[in-house]
């Protein structure tokens, strides 16, 4: 409060106030009292805006959403979001990298407090709080020599073999197209990295992917000049966000974390974080928006 007093009611301010009429002095005192009350309320709110206990947030490595850099440090869009969440909320959050199969098992056993980047649950429980962050569009990634500027040009070219991730779904639009292809034009692979290795040597000619996933492999393998990215605006967007389990996280803490995540999404911070990895155009376009992408519960 000393800084507030010296900045607003020091000697110079009082001298200037003495030159005013009684009515103006009363208005000045009211304004100062209101400002002081606001500052005290802000300090009290800040002091209370911390979690009651530490929590663990789980991520799985997938493209630029979460990855290990050359120094073995965990980085990525969702990792940076959890760091920002911890800093803003004052909560102690430990980030744990966990393989996707283990995540599925622990989710089934109700053992994960926070998860990102997560798709909306089909059958959420009353304890599940979902905060959508991104609404990603799927792209066609195709070797440049085929000259395809539209998805249809790739599908109608019998020479283009599509690399696919075994057991994965690319969403209804892409899945329907892939099912329409003869088996000899589909090459299933056990990892996303393997698909891009095959793209690099021309063993497959195309695949589908989301920017936060394929950009990492394109950058690491320096494939930018060999590939063309073809947007598919008619394909539905895939929603990704943070899932909070209020059965594990104290409800008051869960609400604090929810509010803070929504602020990170809506005040430009998420766009700034995403732009570091995907560029500003993609970060801006794929930011979740309620008017375009629906309610928080989808």
Structure, described:
The structure is a single chain. The chain is an alpha/beta fold and 298 residues long. It folds into three domains: 2-48; 55-135 and 239-293, 3-Layer(aba) Sandwich (D-Maltodextrin-Binding Protein, domain 2); 138-231, Periplasmic binding protein-like II (D-Maltodextrin-Binding Protein, domain 2, 3-Layer(aba) Sandwich). The chain is 45% helix and 20% strand. The protein contains 13 helices and twelve strands. The strands form four sheets. The protein has a five-stranded mixed beta sheet with strand order 4-1-5-12-6, with helices on one face. Helix 8 packs across helix 9 (211-221). The radius of gyration is 25 Å and the shape is elongated. The two termini are 46 Å apart. The model is unreliable at 1-21 and 34-48 (pLDDT under 50).
Give a short overview:
The chain has 13 helices and twelve strands.
List the helices and strands and how they pair.
Blueprint lengths: L1 H7 L2 H8 L3 H27 L6 E5 L7 E2 L5 E2 L1 H13 L3 E5 L2 H9 L5 E5 L9 E9 L1 E6 L7 H5 L6 E4 L6 H9 L5 E4 L2 H10 L4 E5 H11 L5 E5 L6 E8 L5 H16 L2 H10 L1 H6 L4 H4 L5
Parallel strand pairs: 1-4, 1-5, 8-9
Antiparallel strand pairs: 2-3, 5-12, 6-12, 7-10, 7-11
Helix pairs in contact: 4-10, 8-9
């Amino acid at each position: 409060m000393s800084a507030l007093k010296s900045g607003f009611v020091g000697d110079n301010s009082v001298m200037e106030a003495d030159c005013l009429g009684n009515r103006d002095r009363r208005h000045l005192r009211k304004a100062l009292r209101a400002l002081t009350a606001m500052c005290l309320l802000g300090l009290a709110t800040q002091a209370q805006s911390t979690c009651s206990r530490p929590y663990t947030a789980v991520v799985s490595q997938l493209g630029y959403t979460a990855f290990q850099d050359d120094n073995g440090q965990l980085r990525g869009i969702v990792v940076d979001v959890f760091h920002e969440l911890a800093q803003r909320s004052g909560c102690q959050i430990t980030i744990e990298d966990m393989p996707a199969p283990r995540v599925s098992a622990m989710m089934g056993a109700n053992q994960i407090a926070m998860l990102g980047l997560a798709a909306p649950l089909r059958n959420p429980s009353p304890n599940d709080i979902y905060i959508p962050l991104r609404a990603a569009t799927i792209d066609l990634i195709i070797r440049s020599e085929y000259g395809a500027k539209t998805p249809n040009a790739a599908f109608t070219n019998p020479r283009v073999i599509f690399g696919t991730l075994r057991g994965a779904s690319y969403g209804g639009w892409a899945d329907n197209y892939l099912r329409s292809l003869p088996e000899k034009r589909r090459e299933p692979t056990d990892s996303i990295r393997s698909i891009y290795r095959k793209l690099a040597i021309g063993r497959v000619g195309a695949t589908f992917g989301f920017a936060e996933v394929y950009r990492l492999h394109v950058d690491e393998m320096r494939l930018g000049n060999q590939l063309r990215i073809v947007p598919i605006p008619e394909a539905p967007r895939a929603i990704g966000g943070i899932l909070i389990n209020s059965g594990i996280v104290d409800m008051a803490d869960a609400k604090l974390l929810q509010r803070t995540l929504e602020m990170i999404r809506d005040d430009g911070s998420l766009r700034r974080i995403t732009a570091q990895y995907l560029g500003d155009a993609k970060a801006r376009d794929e930011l979740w928006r309620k008017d375009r992408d629906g309610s928080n519960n989808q």
